[in-house]
């Protein structure tokens, strides 16, 4: 057995070797053949075979020519530039001229002499310019790519028709066919020429953009370096003391010329900017003229007492602002210019700030007291000096001189303000008194610090502190005036006669006004915060820090959630809820009130619309959170099984709410009785409904109880209810007269319906009374009507002399009681 196994093993080994050898022998000739085939290719390579495109058959030329002309018409339409391309062609030369003009200005030659805020404004301005150029480049690249694809197709078509022309000439085709081929080929070549010229222009524009982008990128780098250097030198003692700087300055008499030159440069920059942004300037002018026209119109109507229906303090302020229509319109339009002139140059911002001074000085008369107005006028003068100090640019000595004037003027004013016996000590509110006193002392310290640093030559830190504080103080006053003006405009638009005609305004006027003013004040607060950060030159740093925190992602398994996504989730849900409420109010107040819809349909539409908007907003919020909706659907399906068992009652109430909405067995306003609860339905929600009982309480009833339990709806088909009043009179009264009196009382009551008519019946005889019942129908005020009818029956029966029955037991008891009293009196007489 052992030898048999060894023999089998060697036999298999030998057989495997034979098979391998045969395989190698079979593979060898194949490789040899491939080698023999490849070697001749290396020795004598053949030229590539070009497949020549065949021409169009003669019989198909007419149809193909028609198709070609249709295609050419589409290509002609593609040559028409869209709005973005037209805008680029129109604005690009002027924009490039503006950029080159700005790059040659004086302050780019002395960046290291500018303060941090000026450098930040410049960097922001050039970042905006670079972003605009990048957007234009993307638009031009897309346009060039599309035209290039069309040109390739035109080239193929031209080659095809050229071959067709050669084949038709060689084949001696009819002259008509030859002319058709020739005209088609000429049309193709003509459009190709136009395409090539258009592509050439676009490539030229792209080259200009690329060149300018490189220059701007270099300039932004220089500005960033100068900004970093400026931050490091805030406390640097690099300037001479002020008195020595005057002695070292050789051109002191030319300060006026320098100031004039700076103002001229600023005006020139503004001119160039507005010429390049004429659309924004036009929009600003339109807003101003529109506001001015509205305010003048409102002022004329207010003089004739045709504007408002009521008088209060807000409307008195409205009348004051209406009396200055030009100033109010200018101030509000400048506030809106924040969103019109986005990322504008610092010179434009300074011009707008100076324009704010004019209307604010006129409007503070009706807002601040005399003492505050004096302070405001003084701050206005200092603020103008601060603006001039920012305009003078790189003239350090002139900047220091203007800052010296500001501090040397403000210190005595604040000292006078803090003197004993001044009006600051007469402020009644303790909190206001401490706030004003602390602020004044703080400003006094800053002014002295700035004056000292300026005198000894540490100019940057003093300049940043004082210019920033003065700017913030003045602009805070201005923003307060703007807020008052916007509040007045809101009151004007909501409380005037013509708007009061709308049902939604009649019902929700106060709420609309309050919510609108709240959001306006919220926007103004954000604008003020942004202004403060930009004034001190830390806006970009704070924004970058905030963006870094918001964008920081937290990994939860395969899901990454950031703080920004959470904020987006909350904001979208909040907006969805607010939007659903607004739409519900509009539907109920403006639309359903004008339409005749079946009973219950408006409530169903309103509820479904509300929850549809909220549901759609929820899915948007989930998407903003970064959760894949597909995975969320699977997760929701898996959780639905567990929730179905764990939250069975809530799911049951939810489904019952949907049944109530669609089937409408009860509606808002119905009078129902469910269990011990009896009242009017106030609200039908998706989970529960609210019933306002006649006791004045509000009962929350789960929707499942309204669907599964017995519910009595007194007003489902109609709101009419039949009431009955049992009446009993004593024997001996005329039943006919009683019936007549009962019907008279029911018919004369205003709450009883005429149809169906009231009815009275004589039911028969009781133990000691005649039994009557009066039936009548009512629609509203059921309990009150029932009580009044009962009182009317009582008074009528009593006045008619009809006796009411008395129980027999009570009558006999009185007789016995009387007999006992008589017997007692007789006994008293007998006793001596």
From TrEMBL:
<feature type="domain" description="Mechanosensitive ion channel MscS">
    <location>
        <begin position="649"/>
        <end position="715"/>
    </location>
</feature>
<keyword id="KW-0812">Transmembrane</keyword>
<dbReference type="InterPro" id="IPR049278">
    <property type="entry name" value="MS_channel_C"/>
</dbReference>
<dbReference type="Pfam" id="PF21082">
    <property type="entry name" value="MS_channel_3rd"/>
</dbReference>
<feature type="transmembrane region" description="Helical">
    <location>
        <begin position="347"/>
        <end position="364"/>
    </location>
</feature>
<feature type="transmembrane region" description="Helical">
    <location>
        <begin position="515"/>
        <end position="539"/>
    </location>
</feature>
<dbReference type="InterPro" id="IPR010920">
    <property type="entry name" value="LSM_dom_sf"/>
</dbReference>
<feature type="transmembrane region" description="Helical">
    <location>
        <begin position="632"/>
        <end position="651"/>
    </location>
</feature>
<keyword id="KW-0732">Signal</keyword>
<feature type="transmembrane region" description="Helical">
    <location>
        <begin position="281"/>
        <end position="298"/>
    </location>
</feature>
<dbReference type="GO" id="GO:0008381">
    <property type="term" value="F:mechanosensitive monoatomic ion channel activity"/>
</dbReference>
<feature type="signal peptide">
    <location>
        <begin position="1"/>
        <end position="21"/>
    </location>
</feature>
<dbReference type="GO" id="GO:0005886">
    <property type="term" value="C:plasma membrane"/>
</dbReference>
<dbReference type="InterPro" id="IPR011014">
    <property type="entry name" value="MscS_channel_TM-2"/>
</dbReference>
<dbReference type="InterPro" id="IPR052702">
    <property type="entry name" value="MscS-like_channel"/>
</dbReference>
<feature type="transmembrane region" description="Helical">
    <location>
        <begin position="401"/>
        <end position="418"/>
    </location>
</feature>
<comment type="similarity">
    <text>Belongs to the MscS (TC 1.A.23) family.</text>
</comment>
<feature type="transmembrane region" description="Helical">
    <location>
        <begin position="608"/>
        <end position="626"/>
    </location>
</feature>
<keyword id="KW-0472">Membrane</keyword>
<dbReference type="InterPro" id="IPR023408">
    <property type="entry name" value="MscS_beta-dom_sf"/>
</dbReference>
<dbReference type="InterPro" id="IPR006685">
    <property type="entry name" value="MscS_channel_2nd"/>
</dbReference>
<protein>
    <submittedName>
        <fullName>Mechanosensitive ion channel</fullName>
    </submittedName>
</protein>
<dbReference type="InterPro" id="IPR011066">
    <property type="entry name" value="MscS_channel_C_sf"/>
</dbReference>
<keyword id="KW-1003">Cell membrane</keyword>
<dbReference type="Pfam" id="PF00924">
    <property type="entry name" value="MS_channel_2nd"/>
</dbReference>
<feature type="transmembrane region" description="Helical">
    <location>
        <begin position="472"/>
        <end position="494"/>
    </location>
</feature>
<keyword id="KW-1133">Transmembrane helix</keyword>
<feature type="domain" description="Mechanosensitive ion channel MscS C-terminal">
    <location>
        <begin position="725"/>
        <end position="803"/>
    </location>
</feature>
<feature type="transmembrane region" description="Helical">
    <location>
        <begin position="376"/>
        <end position="395"/>
    </location>
</feature>
<feature type="transmembrane region" description="Helical">
    <location>
        <begin position="439"/>
        <end position="466"/>
    </location>
</feature>
<feature type="transmembrane region" description="Helical">
    <location>
        <begin position="559"/>
        <end position="587"/>
    </location>
</feature>
<feature type="transmembrane region" description="Helical">
    <location>
        <begin position="319"/>
        <end position="341"/>
    </location>
</feature>
